[in-house]
Amino acid sequence: MKTCSERYQIGAELPWEPAGEGVRRQIMGYDGQLMIVKVHFEKGAVGSLHEHYHSQATYVASGKFELNIGGEKKVLVQGDGYYVAPDELHGCVCLEEGVLIDVFSPHRADFLKK
């Protein structure tokens, strides 16, 4: 497995990977300590409740999402953001088509092709 991304990521040249029904993602950049991922959601798509040992901070680039973090629900729109602590249960429902920009530390090795 490669230990870091290329220096530059050109969105139009990067592949989109399926990440669930109505969800796809682009790996934008990473090394062992950090990863940034662009995630596109169709309206009604669900990011199922899950947890992972990574710290996560996310920026809502577009759209409208109902987040559930640790059982607390909140609706977020473009310009908002959120933080998920390691091992905290979280997920979302996309209310209006949009894009989330996820940042993980350390990187999500499970997102990288072997």
Question: pLDDT below 50 for ≥5 consecutive residues: which ranges?
Answer: none
Structural category = mainly beta
Number of strands: 8
- Radius of gyration computed on alpha carbons: 14 Å
Range of strand content: over 45%
Number of helices: 0
Portion of residues in helices?
A: under 10%
Dominant shape: globular
Q: What would the CATH topology be?
A: Jelly Rolls
Name the CATH superfamily assignment. Jelly Rolls
Largest sheet: 8 strands, antiparallel
Highest-level CATH class: Mainly Beta
Q: What's the pLDDT, averaged over the residues?
A: 95
| Topology pattern, helix = H, strand = E | EEEEEEEE
CATH architecture: Sandwich
Ends: how far apart? 5 Å
Features of the shown structure:
8-stranded antiparallel β-sheet; single chain; 55% strand; 114 residues
Description:
By secondary structure, the chain is mostly beta strands. It has one domain (11-111): Jelly Rolls, CATH 2.60.120.10. Helices cover 0% and strands 55% of the residues. The chain contains no helices and eight strands. Strands 1, 2, 3, 4, 5, 6, 7 and 8 form an eight-stranded antiparallel beta sheet that branches. The model has no long low-confidence stretch (mean pLDDT 95).
